[in-house]
Task: structure prediction
Amino acid sequence: MTALVLIVDDEPAIRRLLRTGLAAGGYRTIEAETAAEAIAMAGGESPDLILLDLGLPDMEGIDLVRTIHAGSAMPIVVLSARDDERGKVAALDLGADDYVTKPFGMAELIARIRTALRHCLAQEGAVPLFQSGPLSVDLVRRIVKAADQDVHLSPREYDILKLMILHAGRVLTHRSIMAKLWGAGGDVQQLRVYVRQIRQKIEVDPERPAIILTETGVGYRLAVPE
Amino acid sequence: MSDRDLRPSPDALLKAALRDGRGKLKIFLGAAPGVGKTYQMLIAAHDRLRDGVDVVAGIVETHGRAETEALLGGLPTLPRRRVEYAGHTLEEMDIDAILARRPALVLVDELAHSNAPGSRHPKRYLDVEELIAAGIDVYATLNIQHVESLNDVVAQITRIRVRETVPDSIIDGANEIELIDLTPDDLMQRLRDGKIYVAKTATRALAHYFSPGNLTALRELALRRTAQRVDAQLRDHMQAHAIKGPWAAGDRILVCIDQRGGDTLVRYGRRLAERLLVPWAAVHVETARDLALPPASLDKIAETMRLAQQLGADAITLPGSAVVGDLVAYAREHNFTQIVIGSPPRHWWQASRASAMIAAAGDIPVHVIGTEAGNARRFVRPRVQATPYLASTALVGAAILVGLGLRHVLNVSSISLVFLTAVLGAASAFGLGPSLFACLASVLAYNFFFLEPIYTFTIADPENVVTLIFFTATAIIASNLAALVRAQAITARARARTTEDLYQFSRKLAGIASLDDLLWATAFQIASMVKRRVVLLLPIEPGRESLSVRGAYPPEDTLDDSDLAAAHWSWHSNQPAGNGANTLPGAKWLFLPLRTSAGPVAVVGIAAADGLLTPDQRRLLDALGDQAAVSIERIALAEAVDRSHLFAETERLRTAMLTSISHDLRTPLAAILGAASTLQSYRDSLDAATQTDLLATIAEEAERLGRFVANLLDMTRLESGAIALRTQPADLGELVGSTLARASKVLAQHRVGLDLASDLPLLPLDEVLFEQVLFNLLDNAAKYAPAGTAITVRAWWERQEKLVTLQVIDEGPGIPPELTERIFDKFFRVQARDRTRVGTGLGLAICRGFVEAMGGRITAANRADRHGAVFSVRLPT
Result:
């Protein structure tokens, strides 16, 4: 059974494009034009994932994210305008799983949907060995290797890397990382320093990172092996 | 008479033209109250009403007479304006209501009436002038006794001086005058029948007024004045139509004004000039004596000169020393053919200025007018100051000492020279009075100390008597001369200072480029030259109606509403207003428009608290005002030129933007549409490679379009100020990395080298904006540097300077040195030899906008080691 995706967008042209593209990617789709319709369909049709445009006519997209997540853990991927960093970070912090910025390529969108549908590694239980490019991490034995060389990470560095691995392929906002590791008193400055140090140890070219990717203004994403 | 003389006179034509667009004034003129002016006016108004004219009674006094009231009842009447004054309610004509109602014809009784204090104009005839100026016809009534130039004559006849007068110009300017004539006998019969309104308190005075002799004389005056007016109309008509006729002789009348004033003289001059149909002038010779006069006398002169001006004279003040000589010289120089001079009652020792004038004037006729004793009493002697006399005494004392010291060396007659020196010294230092005093003291001292027998006032030797007489004569002549020189020097100095001040002012104005500085300098200069507080008002914006105080000295001055109203009136009517002018005299300031040939450019306000301005000050103010007005206009023009430059620049930008948008939006759209429609129609006949190629074109062009739209959006956000910075500590290295990832497609043809210092601190940046800056710089480098060349991103930290510098360095052709600033302009693109590069001309403008929003600076330069451009972004840590 292929996954069912609920497309929420008020633009017919975008809905048509998404319907065609997702069908080609092997998904079934249903469509809602307004937030009200979307809430009804999310309850009635039980889609596996919601693809949500933040700029809806009848409701702030953010509020819709909050409403839907209040009732279920349904994954949400947000479509946002390029200059709306605030909106997408807010949506992510409220529980949206990922975002795609308009205009987007279909391949990118399908990759995001696939990652979001794949349940979080942490929930799936242990995936003992993680591999991405030159990086391999043994989560059971806490062994980190880059290009077959042992890498020595501090406990805090290891925690950050482990969190990213558990959410591999998904964007993690600065705030969500800090909340998980430091509690409420986190400091984005510290996080940056740690990420820089981790990159120095695991990336081939730390100035052009290929494993820990920066989502400017939003957070980080661990690249997953395709 | 030649043909040239037969052309219509420009003045006459101008007068006729002035009347066009203005309302017409008809005056119902009577010799005395009770002749039936109001009644006749109402009958005429009813005739017009029947003709369908929109007639309104502005203000008509019926004095309770039934037939007049009946007539008035048939006319639309405007309610009167009620004015509270000193506990009474006064009723006045409501000029604003009339202006709002805009009738074709309005009736105004009693032209000479004085309005209640606080009204817009002090006199009703000024209200009427405004109505006429607004294009409304006016019917008005007037008694002959109220005509300004006849004021004295009427007072002589009736022994009642009328305070409420109407200037002759009103009568001269009237389009029609209808004389309401009644014989004295009939008029007296009406008085006996109780048909003439008489206030109870004035019964006795009026009984004298209505004597047959008085009424006959007044009637004659009225008839003559009307006839004169008819003459003038005929003359205007003849001139306007170039009819050959008895032109006025080339007479000119000069009226001499001194500190005794002379309103009578002025009125006489006016009547004479009127009768002879010639121009006239009132001249005052300002001597050094005038400078010592008390303010009351100066004000008197000023008032008289103003009256003369109101009556149509040129008011002229001459600097001089010998009043009679200067006046005659002036008269000859300016072709005055008659001189009018006053002859006040005087004491036997006073030389008659009139007889001196008659002697000096030669062939010029001199009219000597006995002026009223009342005026003469107003003459106030210059104050006598003690110091010059004490000093003169000291000089004589010194002369005595010197003489005593030299008496064994010099003979007695030579010692008189010592005293002569003292007298001359007193004359040149202190003027005539002290020097004559010194002269007397010297004569006595010389006699007492040096002439035998010494220490007595008797003289033994007859020869010494002769010496003493000659000494006295010499001393008096010499002190007169010296005092004269001194007086002239003082006047000349004062004039020279004024001229110098004016010159300095004009030089200062020439160097001022900003309006505020100019207004300040002007206010300061006027304030210091006329010794009053000064404000300058200008329209809030060019072309706007509303004025505001834009300059003042002292600077803290503000105006209240009534003063502002006066200033506005002055601005709109291009006339003086406020205290000291005829309009809104209740204000605390006098407002004068500063004009250029193009019209008023500002209004200057002079505080009235310190007394009226003298004609000299007014003239000085005019001179200052003229210079200031020209400068204000100059600056206004310069601003207009700036505005038009700005406008041209805006136009250029708009054109550039249109070109850019039409090119950069259309090109990718055309490619996308072309490729997509090709695929749509011919997909089956295209091979796989071609299809892939077309699809790639669509994707690439769409991305390009996306970048362009993003740039436009960024620019719009920048310009609308809608950028909300989200500054947080950012890792420059991380930003460079993510930008390189985002720009990988753009940079596919180039090698990118990184040279980032390892110690870079975190910087307070908006990451999203800064990534856009970096992207645009890389995009720009990729666009201009040839494929295959290297693009280097370098960054380092200057700890001392608290700066991080980031550079994007390419190996392209570089930037023409003169354009290193302009390339940051919107829609500006460097024209390459072959063609303009694909691009919007927005990328670098956005870079600059974003970098500056984040507190940094961005500059462009060329590489020193080889050709290529360097863009440097400096960011504070």
About this structure: The CA atoms of residues 80 and 101 of chain A lie 5 Å apart.
